[in-house]
Amino acid sequence: MALLKKYNEEDFRNKVRSSNHAIHEKYDSLPSDEYYDSVTGNVKTFSTPEQNINTRIGVAQAGNIEIDGEGLIDYNISNKGTQDRRNLFPITEQDSTSGLLNITPDLIKFQIEVINPTNPNIGDILAFRAYLDSLSDDYTGGYNSYKYNGRAEKFYTYNEFDRNISFNFKIAAQTLQEMKPIYQKLNYLVAQTAPEYSTNGRMRGKFSRLTIGDWISNVPGFFENVGLSWNKNYPWEIDLNDDTDQVPHVLDVSCKFKPIHDFAPQNSKDTPFILPNS
After folding, report:
1. Tell me, what CATH number does 148's domain have?
2. Which of 52, 130, 191, 270 pairs with 31 at a CA distance of 20 to 30 A?
3. How many domains does the chain have?
4. Which helix (H) or strand (E) holds 13?
């Protein structure tokens, strides 16, 4: 990324505020150990001064980029506070028998674990920031129909159950350093629609575990479709310094996931379809 001229030393947030945005102005004026509760309308204090969205879940503070004396920004310089720690988290192998990885958390739990077909206890973790756009969880019950002589209506017996999960999210890199790990994870995600070949040359699919909050908690299954979409409003990396790839900073990702439950789907108040511990 090239050097950009900083046109104004004033905080950019002050330039986009208007007089009718009293709530936001109130929020911006708060000290670092306080926050605005949008539910109650009150100002509250964090239990510790260090407890905020940046330190707690690793969200980048884009306004903290250091400016040199000439008012230039060098995007090749790694500014630690400006990077999203979850975006930086690489594809990492996890062995469930030795405990869970210490992954940078998010406001909503969102990750994909690609299961090793030869050892299901081992999986590759893809941790994306939960920029979720939509989530659809569809349940279908299939019935066989029968007709009896002398009766106009149909009669039915239960035949099959099916479930389909669809979700859309965004990937968004705010710094140069986030681009490579994000696209490595994205590349591995789209690869889940392709087969793997065993040592004897046999083709086989790979299964994954999907987590989206506690609604979909470590649910096994496979990806039927992964779609990538670019919007003309999203910036594109032009790579003037020839030190990265020419790819968008932001992309829309759509996924269709077929669950394969590790419990027997049945009509019961205790069946954990959408609650892991129901």
Report:
1. 2.40.30.200
2. 130
3. 2
4. helix 12-15
